[in-house]
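Format notes (please read before filing issues)

Several people have asked whether sequences and structure tokens are stored in separate files. They are not. Every record keeps both together, in the order shown below: the sequence lines, then the token lines. Line labels are part of the format and must not be stripped during preprocessing.
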Amino acid sequence: MLDVYVDGGNQDYEHNVLGLGNIMKITEKTKMDLTIKSRDGYKKAILSLLEEDKDAVVLDLGCGDYKRLTQKLVEIIGTRHIYGIDLDVSSSSNNMITFQGDLNEAFPIGNLRFDIILASQIIEHLQNTDGFLKEIYRCLKPTGYAIISTPNLAAWHNRLYLLFGKQPEPCKVSDDMYPEHERPGHLRIFTESALIKLLRFHGFRVEKVIKTFGNITVKVRRQK
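Then the structure lines:
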């Protein structure tokens, strides 16, 4: 009689590998879905804080691609007086006057003053946050307002990361250790209270705060 031995080890191994692969796919899809939810949330918050004013002069800090957010902003405000500052202005639109500059430094706009200044998901990338806010204050007309949106360090998913001893997603410890698409480049991450405290320190009056999934969006004016 022939004894037949079936080694299930390889089958178990293959099953475990396939299972791990599925988990990784689900994890990546979840991260992507949450990223989209986060982005859609802060954009909706920004647009809800805008006021119609066809004569308004607008400055978009870190403007990037005109179609990314500025175009929707223009449609709501109803103005054509749009300026932008970014390190790379190669993809900017003819509908916007752009200046190339480092937002850690003085804004390269001379004595121009603005009714609306937008800083969407940019302050967290800067080393010189104090200088950045001083420049916003300087360039904002006394009757104008600024909208600042940034990741929220105290968001519930970041708290969960810390609860389990993990590094929160917005707070990477290295640029070299992660693939390029996972490098947020964040230098300073704010809680709501810390951001408000900093804004008030630099002479702003906080008019409204909107918290969406993973982000804080604040509308401020110069203190009178």
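For reference, the curators noted about this record: The radius of gyration is 23 Å. The domain at 36-222 is CATH 3.40.50.150 (Rossmann fold).
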